[in-house]
Structure formats: C-alpha cells, structure tokens
Amino acid sequence: MKKITIAIDGFSSTGKSTLAKQIANHLGYVYVDTGAMYRAVTYFAMQHGYITAELFDKENLILALPSIKLEFHFNPSLGFAEMYLNGVNVETEIRTIEVSNFVSKIAEVSQVRAKLVEQQQQMGQGKGIVMDGRDIGTVVFPDAELKIFMTASPETRAQRRFDELQSKGQNVSYEDVLKNVQERDYIDTNRADSPLVKAENAIEIDNSHLTREEQFELVLDLVNHRIN
Ligand code: DC
After folding, report:
1. Closest among 98, 100, 209 to 156, alpha carbons compared
2. Which residues sit opposite 83 in a β-bridge?
3. Contact assessment for residue 142 and residue 195, using Cβ atoms and an 8 Å cutoff
4. Substitution candidate for ligand 1 out of 93, 132, 134 with most atoms within 8 A of CB
5. The domain containing residue 49 runs over which residues?
C-alpha cells in the first residue's frame, strides 16, 4: 500500500499527539512528537543553567547544541516512543509545567530549530510517518500528502492539560495552566522563525466539541482518501 506523510500542526493541548498516535498505530506508521524534542532541549538548557527565571544564556546554549543527542525509543508496553536525551529517558521530566514555561523561548532560537528540523526530515525520508508540531506542514514537510491543523478554545485546552497534569500528580492551578496556554499561543504564533500558521492546503479541525473517536474517524477518512 502507498505510504504517505501526515503532518499535524496546531496550538498546544489540542490533542495532536493523541490523534497522531491513534492514526500511526492504525496504519503501522512511525509517530514523531516534535514538541518532545523542543522540550528535551529545554530540559537540557535548564540542567545546565542556560535558562532560569532570571536569565537566558542563548549564546552558550547555541555553542552546546552539538553535544545534544536526541533519540526516540519505542516502548512496547506504552505503545509509543519515548524521548531520550543523551542516552537518558526524559519522558517524565520534559512534561512538567516548568519545562512548559520555558519551551517557547527555546523554540524561538533559529539554531535550535535548524538542528531539530534536519533530524525530523531525516526521520521522515521513508514516508509512512505521522509527525505533530507547529511547523510540520509549513517547514518540515511542505510536500506532505495530508496536513491537518487542529484548534480548540484556550479554555478547553487548558482544562485538558490541567486534567492531564493532575492525573500525573502534579499540583498546579487551572489558572496557571490557562496562563501558560495563552502565553505559548502568543509566542508560538508571533515568533520570527517558523511561526505557527495554518499551511495553505491544511485541513482545519476544531475539536472543542468532538470526541476522540469522532475526530479519529474524520481524519481516517481523509487518510484513506489520500492513500487511494
Ligand atoms: O507540542 P508541545 O506542547 O509539547 O510543544 C512544546 C513547545 O515546543 C511549543 O510551545 C512550541 C514548541 N514547538 C515548536 O516550536 N515547533 C514544533 N514543531 C513543536 C513544538
């Protein structure tokens, strides 16, 4: 069967990764969460003191970029690939609100983007890939056969992220999560390099009122249409 490239972009906490995982599992495709890669670089920057509440030492982060090795290792018991930073599994560490608070600043740095985009393009060479992020349909795979752009209201997205953090035992307030969602929306859509925009030929899905199953069926139809 013909293999295609599926690019899923959109605002934070729109459920991109849930959808991307469902589609990839169904088709036997590789799923790549590019947000995890930006988060891992952020975690690296925090560990080395390049970013704190007071400072952002961009120059030294850029100099340290060659020493950052990012890999995904599939975990069969979870059914998806986990993020490894220099050989260490950082899947839990990269999902904290602290990392979320810094990640948009790190993702603004062109040298960081260039490094990650190059790796993402290599991963997609053989097609049969579902990749989610902010610039997949516009920058990473402008020729993707299927591009989805996902949206939902900030309140809906904050509630989802809040529920997720709570279920992981992270003690945060809904207000803080909403503030983080709104700040990231602003930075992600206003940055100079590869801002979040809907690709011209992307299909927009507002899932504020869709169940996971409805959304999956909708996208699966689009996929089958492209494959056939
Ligand atoms: O998808 P996420 O919320 O885990 O992504 C974390 C951050 O990384 C997000 O605020 C913006 C950035 N990002 C990006 O700039 N480009 C991507 N392709 C993926 C994520």
Report:
1. 209
2. 72
3. no
4. 134
5. 5-221
Residue 60 is encoded by which pair of tokens? 């030294």
Write out the E strands in the chain. Answer: 5-10, 30-33, 70-75, 80-85, 88-89, 129-133, 146-151, 203-206
Return averaged pLDDT per consecutive 10 residues of the chain, 228 residues in all: 95 92 95 97 98 98 98 93 97 94 95 98 97 97 97 94 91 94 92 94 94 94 94
Q: Are strands 80-85 and 88-89 parallel, antiparallel or unpaired?
A: antiparallel
In a domain? residue 228: no
Q: How many domains does the chain have?
A: 1
CATH code (residue 189): 3.40.50.300
Whether 227 maps to a domain, the answer reads no
Q: Is residue 116 part of a domain?
A: yes
Residue 181 lies in a domain: yes
Rounded CA-CA distance 93/51 in Å is 16
CA of 35 to the centre of ligand 1 (A): 4
